[in-house]
Amino acid sequence: MRMKPYLKRSLTVVVVGGLSAVLVAGCSSGTPEASAPERDLGTPVAGEIGDGVLKGVTLTYAASGGIFQDGQTKAAWEPFAEKSGATFLQDAFDSGKLKAMVDSGNVSWDVVNTTQFDTARGCGTLYEEYDYSQIDMSKIPEGTVTDKCMVPNILYGLVVAYNTDAFGDNPPTSAADFFDTKKFPGKRTVSQSTYVDPQTAEFALVAQGKDPSTITTDDIDGAFDMYRSLGSDVIGWTTGAQAQQQLESGEAVMGLVWSGRGYGAAAAGAPIAPMWDDWMIMVDSTGIPKGIKDKQAAFAAVNYYIGAEQQAKMTELTSYGPVNTDAKPKVDKKLGTWLTTEHMATGHAPNVDFWVKNYDVLATAWAGWATGS
Amino acid sequence: MSQISAPSRPRVTSAGKVGSEANQRAPRNWKPFLLLVPAFLIVSLFFLAPLVDVFIRSITDPRLGLQNYVWLFTTETNITVTVRTFGTALLVTVVCVLLAYPYAYLMTIVGDRTRNLLQLFVMLPLWTSILVRTLAWMVLLQDTGPINGFLETAFGIGPLPLIRSTFGVALAMSQVLLPFMVLPLYSAMSKIDKRLLPAASNLGARPITAFFTVYLPLSRPGIFAGSITVFILGLGFYIIPSLLGSSKEIMISALMYQQISVFLMWGQGTALGIFLLAATVLILVVVGRLSKGASMFPGVEK
Amino acid sequence: MLRRVLGAIAILIIAWLVLPTLVIIPMSFNSASSFNFPPKGFSLRWYENFFTDASWLRALGASLQVAIVTMIVATTVGVMASIGLSKVRFRGKALLENFFLTPLIVPGIVIAVGLYSLFLRFNLLGTLPGFVLAHTVVALPLVIINVMASLQGVDPRLEEASASLGAGRLQTFFSITLPLIMPGVTAGALFAFVTSFDEIILSLFIQSPQLQTLPVKIYYSVTQTNDPTVAAVAVIAMFTSVIIMLSAQFASRKRKSVSA
Asked: How far is residue C45 CA from its own chain's centroid?
């Protein structure tokens, strides 16, 4: 090695570079931001906002993208921007980025769509508590507000979508059937995405005859072992688009997928139908990141978003269920069969408190499951 | 030679010899140092500083200490995924050597025009984004895709696990990394005296013996150079294993992303990143020592 | 005989390198909204989508802008650094050179995570300077490698002769050195352009609604929808880069034959 005689000089290079690097890395900008003016917006009514009251305000909504975010934008954010005078930007949500933003005090998202577990875990640290007096909560479906930092964003579910060409005459009718490869031969697709859906674990526990509301941490590994026991009959999906493609192409005859993705496959003409006998209720949160500049404007936007008209249109455009009990979306027969709001009686509600408390156990188990170990 | 030369690997051990003869004659002068300032600043501020930031986080998040590294080495999933990541990178390296060797050799025995063409074709894929090529593989390799469709109609077999398998991931990764093997191999082979093989046969060696005793050792620097590049680049792959593999093909980069973006464990995620980086540097140093031995062979300048 | 066998192997390898990607061409004319193979029917609707959707066009524009500026910055800085490295002599030089080249081998996601928190503090997320600086870091090594390779072939006596005839340093550089190393500079600049144009992992982290490059948009599309518009975009992007590369190669070959 010719490096040895260089050692001294080369150390200088590294040290100088390193020092300047540390300087940059260590220097953070914690500029105190001017608090936004409190305007008088009157008593909140879901779906309404005064003309031009938010002129000059810029809000950014971060969500998971695709047809879903486009639909929400068309149904609520665009009309909101037009009426209130605010500018509305759209970005792609990422929890890790949100944490970095909050840590650095430089938050560029005002309203985000995330899971109900995220807002419950991060309530007060990553997410602002709502001032529910600024939002008209009267038409929010019962039981959907699972922590103080959320207003429901959409209602949907983790449902079994099956191929009617394969099982049309004798469809699966329970969570246990999903694991019965003798009666229902063929490949199943299950989430192995980097994102954690505790409902995936709960579904397996329901198939074991357990009640999600009484589960313990000892049950968690057993849930993933259920999926592992399917062996080569289980394939994973890592993105919603992939789940849909696997159902559409027939690679999987059955899948435990987000209801909107099952509908997506059916809408593309694939012979796919939902099983409603055992399904897992999911609610997404609308969260407000901690430390945003103009909370009042963000609350007003959320209040507008949950209006009956906006929610009806959102459902028509995205196929996800509305969070306003007055919303009357005009849906065709096909979409009608995929709306979770019609089947609440057979849905299993998630045990949010349990998962928030035992998130680390879940995270370890999920990381193992999602990496095939 | 065409103008597009290879993005060859950074030569950790041999760099600095470049133009060293010219240096000896150049007068000592501080002005040329100014030319280095912009590059030094950019790389320090936007490459070294982020790495320092990542390192600091790995030992301070959520609190000061080495707990993230303890977690790293005591969690079964991490060990499985690390072993797999190295295994996949090694597999891809072997595939690339086997494919690139005859290709690079052919480049040394054909005319200029054909050689330029061969080089053009091997570089062509570099001009298409990895994302687009991955999308194409997704279409081709899926169970209901054209390859499985053909196998089924022609031979009645299938569907074979082309996608969601190590095979699919290695196929796509090798396709992306092959140019990084062909170019250093060709560069090493082009320096080998072409009269050596005939000379060996004249002395009675069979062509195969001549190849293994004469040619292969002489081409070793090229194999080393290409292998290190391919192996190290292979370690960091993220998109291809995520989109073409199943959970059993996920590599360290994806694990790191999951820790940071889903579990919000910045400390653990950045520790994984630092570990990957340290492994890379270690490999460079070790192989750098080994390949120095290779340069002792006659007729090859390192 | 050997040559035939090798030729056959080479043709198979070329087929494996080039042909699979072409499958997106038929997919881009699919009339169904799906990536199922074979495509059903023939339709131009995905191309129409691309050319009528402002966000796709904006992403293409942003990508071209970032790539061109990155190419200029990385090439200028890289040529300066290469010349500097070839002229200076000090003990840490090998290390300094390696320092410039390391971004090539550090896994993208590691830099991306660090760069994100850095850019967050300095408000560089989703800005043109932010993108250019981030892409320059990964493009710079390719410029330096190519230019250094060309500099090796330059006879230092030519520069000395120029200096002895009274030419200044800059004049010597532009009239003697630069023309001689032009092939390396062109190659480096082209690499810088494509590196930036295709860069995805850093870009995913540093993008914002204000500035989103084409690969970022393609990534979101591939992971969130089965919309074949992305196939049409891919075909357009693929042909754009291949045409740029072929014309650059053609141009430099022509120049070479003129100067020869």
From this structure: 30
The pairing of strands A347-348 and A111-115 is unpaired
**A162: region left, alpha or beta (phi > 0 left; psi from -120 to 50 alpha):** beta
Query: How do residues B79-91 score in pLDDT, each as one tens digit?
Result: 999 999 999 999 9
Quick check: is C61 in a domain?
Answer: no
Read off the pTM: 0.87
Q: Which residues of A touch C (CB under 8 A)?
A: 2-3, 5-6, 8-14, 17, 24-25, 27-29, 60, 64-68, 89-92, 97, 100-101, 103-104, 106, 108, 239-242, 244-245, 248-249, 264, 268-269
Give chain C's domain count: 1
- C151-201 residue pLDDT tens: 887 888 888 888 888 888 888 889 888 998 988 898 889 889 988 998 999
DSSP state for residue A76 in the 8-state scheme: I
Indicate whether C1 belongs to any domain: no
Q: Which partners does chain A have (≥3 C-beta pairs < 8 Å)? A: B, C
| Closest CA of chain C from A134, distance in Å | 28
Q: Fold for A156-281, please state it.
A: D-Maltodextrin-Binding Protein; domain 2 (3.40.190)
C85 and B5 within 8 Å at the Cβ level: the answer is no
CATH label of the domain that carries residue C98: 1.10.3720.10
Assigned superfamily of B60-294? MetI-like (1.10.3720.10)
| Residue C10 resides in a domain | no
| SS3 assignment for chain C | CHHHHHHHHHHHHHHHHHCHHHHHHHHHCCCCCCCCCCCCCCCCHHHHHHHHCHHHHHHHHHHHHHHHHHHHHHHHHHHHHHHHHHHCCCCCHHHHHHHHHHHHCCCHHHHHHHHHHHHHHCCCCCCHHHHHHHHHHHHHHHHHHHHHHHHHCCCHHHHHHHHHCCCCHHHHHHHHHHHHHHHHHHHHHHHHHHHHHHCCHHHHHHCECCECCHHHHHHHHHHHCCCCHHHHHHHHHHHHHHHHHHHHHHHHHHHHHHHC
Range of the domain at C151: 67-211
- Interface predicted TM-score (ipTM): 0.90
How does DSSP classify residue A59? E
Distance from CA of B134 to the nearest CA of A (A): 13
Measured CA to CA, the distance from residue C204 to residue A36 in angstroms comes to 31
